[in-house]
Amino acid sequence: MLKSLLRYQSGGGSVSENHMRKKLYENGVTDSLKSNFALLLKLSEELLDKWLSYPETQHVPLSQHMLGFAMKSVTQMVMGSTFEDDQEVIRFQKNHGTVWSEIGKGFLDGSLDKNTTRKKQYEDALMQLESVLRNIIKERKGRNFSQHIFIDSLVQGNLNDQQILEDSMIFSLASCIITAKLCTWAICFLTTFEEVQKKLYEEINQVFGNGPVTPEKIEQLRYCQHVLCETVRTAKLTPVSAQLQDIEGKIDQFIIPRETLVLYALGVVLQDPNTWPSPHKFDPDRFDDELVMKTFSSLGFSGTQECPELRFAYMVTTVLLSVLVKRLHLLSVEGQVIETKYELVTSSREEAWITVSKRY
């Protein structure tokens, strides 16, 4: 869907070529997470230290902090050490915000093409993001670096520069937002449902004890996985998804031509009472049932059909929660009502505020 909205080429290759490109993209996610786990842990601990320094009465702007954390994580893991500089992250975040806001609204309602000022701002921001990516692609070609980033996997594959640019742009745009909103909604639900937070804290203590957070032990956080799955479902994190039709298809008497963008109303399916008992209740324990997890997987939210950007967000959010919940009680602000805004990725209409208190 993002390729279509950005007016990028779909690839135009054969089914096997497009499958190879998709596999390369997925491997890039796996390799960048594996190579940069220590970086992800460091960024999580930096946020923890910041929150530990706050007085217990201080209101924390959760959405703002999660977006900043996601931007730092994604830019360094996708594009490398250039984004250790906070000013580079701020520039990227500004351009990202301009592009994403128009993708989520301007293209869908047709208003972008009717407003020349907005269209120029969008095109300038997109051009600046593409310029940054082109420079990084050029820098990484034919050289070895100690830090393996997402772009490296694409550069090492059999892709041309335009394909590398498109795939790295799409991953950067989507991963920042999906990661930020998954972190935000997960913490919102934990502050609202104290018994869920208590159970997650107990699992984190049981798995890690006094030891460090490691990739091997992260895999043991089964309840945390269920919390994140239920967060995606209850928040309707991605209410719409889309897929380009690889080959011509047919539904009843209707022909779906190759290269047609097919939309899926996931927000409806995720809260269908025929599939999900008490669909509006936040209940991570529902995922103890293997059939429920299979249903969730079939929608592309886990397992082999999982969206790569969401898989990235799951890992980032799991590490962050492991660090935060071990040391902090996450608390809601009394009287706050969080209204939901449904776009390509679901967010809160206004800032979501929380408070924190030290466990020890």
TrEMBL record:
<dbReference type="GO" id="GO:0004497">
    <property type="term" value="F:monooxygenase activity"/>
</dbReference>
<feature type="binding site" description="axial binding residue">
    <location>
        <position position="307"/>
    </location>
    <ligand>
        <name>heme</name>
    </ligand>
</feature>
<dbReference type="InterPro" id="IPR001128">
    <property type="entry name" value="Cyt_P450"/>
</dbReference>
<dbReference type="InterPro" id="IPR002401">
    <property type="entry name" value="Cyt_P450_E_grp-I"/>
</dbReference>
<feature type="coiled-coil region">
    <location>
        <begin position="112"/>
        <end position="139"/>
    </location>
</feature>
<dbReference type="InterPro" id="IPR036396">
    <property type="entry name" value="Cyt_P450_sf"/>
</dbReference>
<keyword id="KW-0349">Heme</keyword>
<keyword id="KW-0408">Iron</keyword>
<dbReference type="GO" id="GO:0005506">
    <property type="term" value="F:iron ion binding"/>
</dbReference>
<dbReference type="Pfam" id="PF00067">
    <property type="entry name" value="p450"/>
</dbReference>
<protein>
    <submittedName>
        <fullName>Cytochrome P450 family 20 subfamily A member 1</fullName>
    </submittedName>
</protein>
<dbReference type="GO" id="GO:0016020">
    <property type="term" value="C:membrane"/>
</dbReference>
<keyword id="KW-0175">Coiled coil</keyword>
<dbReference type="GO" id="GO:0016705">
    <property type="term" value="F:oxidoreductase activity, acting on paired donors, with incorporation or reduction of molecular oxygen"/>
</dbReference>
<dbReference type="GO" id="GO:0020037">
    <property type="term" value="F:heme binding"/>
</dbReference>
<dbReference type="InterPro" id="IPR052666">
    <property type="entry name" value="CYP450_20A1-like"/>
</dbReference>
<comment type="similarity">
    <text>Belongs to the cytochrome P450 family.</text>
</comment>
<keyword id="KW-0479">Metal-binding</keyword>
